UniProtKB/TrEMBL annotation:
Biased composition (Gly residues): 23-33
Domain BRICHOS: 135-225
Signal sequence, renumbered to the chain: none
Superkingdom of origin organism: Eukaryota
PROSITE patterns: BRICHOS
Transmembrane stretches, start-end: 66-93
Protein name: DgyrCDS9320
Protein's organism: Dimorphilus gyrociliatus
Region feature Disordered, mapped onto this chain: 1-42
């Protein structure tokens, strides 16, 4: 009895302890549920708020970057468009209408020295331009052959003088002849021209021809030239001494111009 106690009482005490245990466990469980319920909510709130702030910051940064990118792109596009418009305006203002491809001809002067002549044909304006480089025997020359005005202007760049000559051939004839010499070596045919000693007035040249010729001469002194032939004689001399009587100026395409006083011929 003493060792094992009262069985009925023991059972009753076990019942009270079990009930107390269940009640305490229920309370603890309830408390545990509250903790388990509240703790995740608190953690979620503590984590979710920084995530929202980070997302908003990213959106703002993305918006700023997009704005900067669009602004820079717009500025660059505007500058490129402005540059293209200016370039097109310059090209249009300086355009040589309906120009053929450059024609390069290697010429040999009377001493068989090479002379490079570059030409272009303007089919709309009916004119031909030529440029010959300076050599030991020849000056640098720029030529404008204006077939509408029926005149040619020979600009001697080396001596800063310009010579005008009436054209004898047609535009089609000279253009065809020039194109046939493309990428060929041509022996120059010596031609002699006599120039008036008196300078031409710019207003007179503009009246007789057009402004293209005086523009080509670039303000240089202008002289009228005409072909020299053997029927011309020189006062107090002969045609064979013309080189001594006149100052000779070699020009491109086989032209040699002699500056003489027209009164010397009869």
């Amino acid at each position: 009895m003493t060792a094992f106690g009262n069985p009925a009482r023991n059972e009753e005490e076990k019942g009270h302890e079990l009930a107390a245990s269940k009640k305490g466990g229920g309370g603890g469980g309830g408390g545990g549920k509250n903790v388990a319920f509240n703790t995740p909510n608190s953690a979620e709130k503590e984590i979710q708020v920084p995530q929202l702030k980070t997302l908003a910051n990213r959106r703002r940064k993305t918006s700023r970057r997009l704005f900067v990118f669009m602004s820079v792109t717009f500025v660059l596009f505007s500058l490129a468009l402005l540059g293209a418009v200016i370039a097109l305006a310059v090209i249009y203002a300086r355009r040589p209408t309906q120009l053929g491809r450059p024609i390069v001809v290697q010429l040999l002067d009377n001493r068989d020295q090479p002379v490079t002549q570059t030409s272009q044909i303007n089919f709309e304006e009916k004119c031909i331009t030529m440029h010959s480089n300076k050599t030991k025997n020849m000056d640098e020359t720029q030529i404008l052959m204006d077939y509408k005005a029926q005149f040619a202007a020979y600009l001697d760049v080396t001596k800063d003088e310009c010579y005008l000559q009436r054209l004898r051939d047609t535009f089609d004839e000279d253009a065809e002849s020039l194109e046939s010499h493309q990428n060929r070596t041509v022996k120059m045919t010596a031609k002699k021209y006599v120039a008036d000693e008196s300078k031409l007035e710019k207003s007179l040249v503009d009246f007789v021809t057009d402004h293209q010729l005086t523009k080509h001469c670039r303000g240089r002194d202008m002289y009228f030239i005409y072909p020299y032939n053997s029927s011309m004689t020189v006062v107090n001399g002969t045609s064979s001494t013309i080189r001594k009587e006149c100052s000779a100026i070699p020009c491109s395409s086989g032209f040699t111009i002699y500056i003489c006083d027209p009164s010397a011929f009869q």
